[in-house]
Amino acid sequence: MIRDIQFDDAGRLRHFLTLEGLAPALLYRIMDTAESFVSVTDRQIKKVPLLRGKTIVNLFFENSTRTRTTFELAAKRLSADVLSINIATSATSKGEGLLDTIWNLQAMHVDMFVVRHAHSGAAHFIAQHVEPHVSVINAGDGRHAHPTQAMLDMFTIRRIKGDFTPLSVAIVGDILHSRVARSEIHALKILGVSDIRVIAPPTLLPGGIEQSGLRVFHDLDAGLRDVDVVIMLRLQRERMSGTFLPSKQEYYLRFGLTEARLRQARPDAIVMHPGPINRGVEIDSRVADGVQSVILQQVGYGIAIRMAILSMAMHSGDAAAAAREAS
Amino acid sequence: MIRDIQFDDAGRLRHFLTLEGLAPALLYRIMDTAESFVSVTDRQIKKVPLLRGKTIVNLFFENSTRTRTTFELAAKRLSADVLSINIATSATSKGEGLLDTIWNLQAMHVDMFVVRHAHSGAAHFIAQHVEPHVSVINAGDGRHAHPTQAMLDMFTIRRIKGDFTPLSVAIVGDILHSRVARSEIHALKILGVSDIRVIAPPTLLPGGIEQSGLRVFHDLDAGLRDVDVVIMLRLQRERMSGTFLPSKQEYYLRFGLTEARLRQARPDAIVMHPGPINRGVEIDSRVADGVQSVILQQVGYGIAIRMAILSMAMHSGDAAAAAREAS
Amino acid sequence: MIRDIQFDDAGRLRHFLTLEGLAPALLYRIMDTAESFVSVTDRQIKKVPLLRGKTIVNLFFENSTRTRTTFELAAKRLSADVLSINIATSATSKGEGLLDTIWNLQAMHVDMFVVRHAHSGAAHFIAQHVEPHVSVINAGDGRHAHPTQAMLDMFTIRRIKGDFTPLSVAIVGDILHSRVARSEIHALKILGVSDIRVIAPPTLLPGGIEQSGLRVFHDLDAGLRDVDVVIMLRLQRERMSGTFLPSKQEYYLRFGLTEARLRQARPDAIVMHPGPINRGVEIDSRVADGVQSVILQQVGYGIAIRMAILSMAMHSGDAAAAAREAS
């Protein structure tokens, strides 16, 4: 069996690239570590010295203020030095290749790359080429994976619903193009969720999904019936008209989550969304801002989950214990 | 009477949005606190740990390197973590609304927003929608207010002139479009300045200003006669020609501050300007760089005033006492 | 004799603008100090508190992610606060002059400017106008000088080759337009290198270079014969065609460093390049990534050299001693 590139020789987490193939115990350990950081963010002084003197490079080949910001805050709250590099506007304008950029930054003795890239596999490619002491975190690669987003979603579900196994979870929207959906499906399977559903028009579903063990729905009302968790996906602007969909109005009529639609789910169902939301496209404002929405909790938990993953990849002692102590 | 949104339930300063309606005692307390920070910036180690572990977001919807820089330095010298977000180039490109942006950042457990926005009332609007533990500082909103600039101007005047009540202060230039002028006039009135003058062509004065208690002049020589303080305003490029003014040459001839003109003021009069200056438009270089100019002192005091306001809004114990101690 | 602006009244290094006229002892002292910082960057916690509470402004009028990043990392590892200002996109858009920008930042009590500018002499001009407590570091000015790059190159040579005096060093490429080459030639002369060669087509050499004491070659094979060190220069895109060169293919054929060409040099010769490299233009990938290449070591040493220069210009006690202690 090929050893997973995500672990070092001692079997410890080193890179965090995809959830595919990870053991349930690791996912639980990440969530347990994040649990200890939730209290850090509620403190007056929101810092722990776990990564003091470490240099983390935010390497964003695709612009995302929101994701970059959460990683930057997570790193700063661990007392790391953070370097944010937007590659779209820098080195490549001098025609430098991706690996040359990585090798140069690595030669500056940085400890970690947080990589966002429009191409699937970019973070994995970088992880294959860095030195043994350097870690790579995938902050979203093409349509492939967005594992920290999926982990914060799982963490949100666990904090509210407790046990994963009896849950019904529906993912609604553009499954075909969504790295978030791909990573969430891996996570839900690993954690033993018994009923995983995808709800989308046929044009926004990958071919062969019927053979995946998921329950596939093309009708929102039918798909939402008695679910515990509804995960709405963002409809990207470029899909709002043309070959995939007739129009965004049409999409909203058929797949937009309204209060009426949400009544199909269990009364205590929660509504999630990776953000940023398109109000009136995939979700009605009354649902997004309603009592069942946990969208903003997700954002806060995103900091705690990223603090957990950054500190675990750096093997910074007992991260959970350190987090409990004052900085 | 409606309670001022700028104070918390215990009556302590929470937001800093406008000077309108504030008590003289608060303005003096801000200046007293700033006084203690002036010595910090002169030290070898220019840091105090007052805001350690706090996260301050510079949210600039309008580009201003200078103002952003002073807030960033003020925050760093208080040991806060600073996140600078230029919204013009980020979230809104994904079509996210202002409140969604604020709510998301707030969910990341940030403590303060420093807001610059082209629309009057933007900072106030944000302050109405944030959670109780979050503070909002107005770093300039449309034509409405720029209260930290006005406070640093008052602080500069107090450091040099001492008592406010006997002073004659003239504000010269585009009063109509200037948030700086609006905030300065509030501050000067609150502090009991006996003679407040505005000097401008009629097209650059708001309607009804004659009823405001200010002395209005359309002639620079007449307006400057025997004043103690001259505050020049920046002439925005877009006013330099067209409906408001014949040309910038014509403006300089009538309202540009030259050494000859300045002789109308008292011999110990000081010349102020919020910067950046337009040399040869509203002010002659010999005046800007001359012995009566305190323009660069204003910049330095701007850091101290912003340190005072940031730490007071965060209620960080006895800010003044802490500033006196070494970090 | 005119006192060198680079030193203060006590004869200590204050600005670092050019290597021209510096004594060998100073260059050795910089390298000795850098030596102590090499171990810092290998530590778990890569920080020393030498510049805590100091504010360093990266003032880049020319975009260079790589150079800005190395200065930013050097400053952060010395625990300074760093402000990065890209002037192309900020103050000058409001029409503010260079000196007004400098004076304003200086009024904010910053301690050091690291300046990159397209005009030769810009850093020197700024150094002439700042207050006595402020230092200026030249991070590249026009075609004039890039002294920190030259120093990291010397440091790399010393770490590998030891003594400078017996060495043969060849600089290959666009000598005419290269500030790196100019500074390297000064450094090599100061350090007593016995055989300094430049290899370039006549169109890429300055007039009168034959009278400079350098050995001039227009043929790569002849020039490389028995050298100890090969320094390749980056061929700027704008030279790749037109008046200076027929085409980049032609340039590669005549001046590109291939494995075959490198065999002219001594077997233990090292290959250097300031980066970013143009693979297949001035250097073949097999050489750039080969065993004789020290290009990535240069990058790492660049941090140590910049830490040395920043701390020496700030006169931060015994920088070398402090670096040996844990932070």
Automatic annotation (TrEMBL), chains A, B, C:
One of its GO terms (biological process) is 'de novo' UMP biosynthetic process. Residues 14-158 form the Aspartate/ornithine carbamoyltransferase carbamoyl-P binding domain. InterPro entries: Asp/Orn_carbamoyltranf_P-bd (IPR006132), Asp/Orn_carbamoylTrfase (IPR006130), Asp/Orn_carbamoylTrfase_sf (IPR036901), Asp_carbamoyltransf (IPR002082), Asp_carbamoyltransf_Asp/Orn-bd (IPR006131). Its EC number is 2.1.3.2. Carbamoyl phosphate binds at residues 66-67, 116, 146, 149, 275-276. It catalyses: carbamoyl phosphate + L-aspartate = N-carbamoyl-L-aspartate + phosphate + H(+). Catalyzes the condensation of carbamoyl phosphate and aspartate to form carbamoyl aspartate and inorganic phosphate, the committed step in the de novo pyrimidine nucleotide biosynthesis pathway. Belongs to the aspartate/ornithine carbamoyltransferase superfamily. ATCase family. This is Aspartate carbamoyltransferase. It comes from Candidatus Methylospira mobilis. The gene is pyrB.
